[in-house]
Design goal:
The protein is an alpha/beta fold. The chain has 10 helices and 8 strands. Strand 5, helix 6 and strand 6 form a beta-alpha-beta unit. The longest helix is centred in the first third of the chain and has 20 residues. The radius of gyration is 18 Å and the shape is globular. The two termini are 13 Å apart.
């Protein structure tokens, strides 16, 4: 029986990543699900959002590809808002994690007066800005953009004017130009374990809820999920972003930044199953699958198996 709550969306860009290939992830997942005759959600009729590629500027080292990303994210934001307007929950396969800024911005455009909680299941905090980034890769910046932060007090870079202007556009993405879209009390990190000093300072200063590997071992994944839901109890809607590098690196290297000591498949399955049943779920994203990086234990096959298992559990619920 098909779960008609969801509309599948693919966001096929790796503009924000340090390694190419994540743009191939959404289609790899769809093809794998088709091979399984997966029918819990419609994998044949979906919204496909592809970028237009132009040569990136060499003038934006602290926001690599930011011109392309800004134009592309404006398109993503419009598309996601249209899906939400017709009453569907976006189920998203995205390339690199920078697109989460556009996805959540599009939802916020529609629910401008509502609190949107974000559950960020990721090895990384993605709290950098062009002023603090060590790499210039914008997939390390979506949470900062959503929170409307520059973190200039910790600046170690001096972005050029074009980067500053486009970064401001990313923070204000959407027709309503809302910023901030996300409050620190409405954000929860799960499986976080690879951060820079600046990000740790922000987490502490903003008192952001964070469950690291030791917390998950000590508390158990069941309690982590319950505490996360309780933390976000005052939010009208919840958006879940599942970066596949939240999984332990022993499972697959098919993502741009694998990190050891991550989630087990059992823990990931439990997380997804519980969160997909939230009554106020407003979006569920799976991101950073990179088929170009692992041919022995392909991440897209692993994640397709996980999706199938999770939806089979939901059918029994």
């Amino acid at each position: 029986m098909r779960d008609d709550r969801f509309k599948l969306i693919t966001v096929e860009s790796d503009f924000g990543a340090g390694k190419a290939g994540a743009a191939l992830g959404p289609q790899a997942l769809i093809e794998e699900l088709k091979l399984k005759n997966f029918d819990a959600i419609d994998v044949y009729s979906y919204v496909n959002i592809e970028p237009r590629y132009t040569a990136p500027s060499t003038e934006t080292p602290h926001g690599k590809n930011i011109e392309n990303i800004t134009t592309f994210q404006q398109n993503v934001c419009r598309n996601i808002s249209e899906v939400v307007q017709v009453g569907k929950i976006p189920f998203i396969f995205s390339g690199d994690h920078s697109s989460a800024n556009a996805l959540i911005s599009g939802i916020k455009d529609h629910y401008a007066n509502s609190r949107i909680g974000v559950i960020w299941i990721d090895a990384h905090a993605d709290l950098h800005s062009p002023y603090t980034t060590p790499s210039g890769n914008i997939h390390g910046m979506p949470i900062a953009a959503l929170m409307g932060h520059d973190h200039r007090e910790m600046a170690k870079n001096q972005p050029k004017e074009i980067t500053k202007k486009l970064w401001d556009d990313l923070k204000r993405l959407g027709r309503r130009r809302i910023t901030p879209k996300l409050q620190s009390n409405d954000l929860v990190f799960i499986a976080l374990r690879s951060t820079e000093m600046e990000e740790e300072r922000i987490i502490k200063k903003e008192n952001i809820a964070c469950y690291r590997p030791d917390d998950i071992r000590d508390l158990g994944i069941e309690n982590v999920v319950s505490m996360t839901i309780n933390r976000l109890r005052n939010c009208e809607y919840i958006y879940v972003s599942f970066d596949v590098d939240s999984l332990d690196s022993s499972l697959s290297a098919g993502t741009g930044t694998p990190v050891e000591d991550g989630l087990s498949l059992h823990q990931a399955k439990y997380l997804m199953s519980r969160l997909l049943q939230l009554h106020n779920l407003i979006g569920f994203e799976i991101t950073e699958v990179n088929p170009a990086l692992d041919t022995e234990k392909p991440m897209h096959k692993l994640i397709a198996d996980l999706i199938e298992d999770v939806f089979n559990e939901l059918r029994k619920a």
